[in-house]
Specification:
The protein contains 5 helices and no strands. By secondary structure, it is mainly α. The two termini are 36 Å apart. InterPro entries: c-mor_Regulatory_Protein (IPR052411), Homeodomain-like_sf (IPR009057), Mor_transcription_activator (IPR014875), YraL-like (IPR049739).
Amino acid sequence: MKYTNANKILPEKLINEIQKYVQGETIYIPKQETEYEKWGARSGGRRLLDRRNAAIRHAFISGSSIQQLAEEYYLSIETIKKIVYSHKK
């Protein structure tokens, strides 16, 4: 996480107001909820997992057993069950 000195970005009046509550400490100011991105949206990780899960569901429908899929994808049997029995399409 990158830190920025408040003196460089905030007006003096606002800094004085904040100092009534906290001084000399690091505080985190979160993004507005409208600015949040879902996990993996930027890196593409979510898209890769969605494709993998779709392939697992397809293989299950095509006859592969849960045990076979767990071994093939190096996942636990419980994880495979969650993937194949979820209602995502």
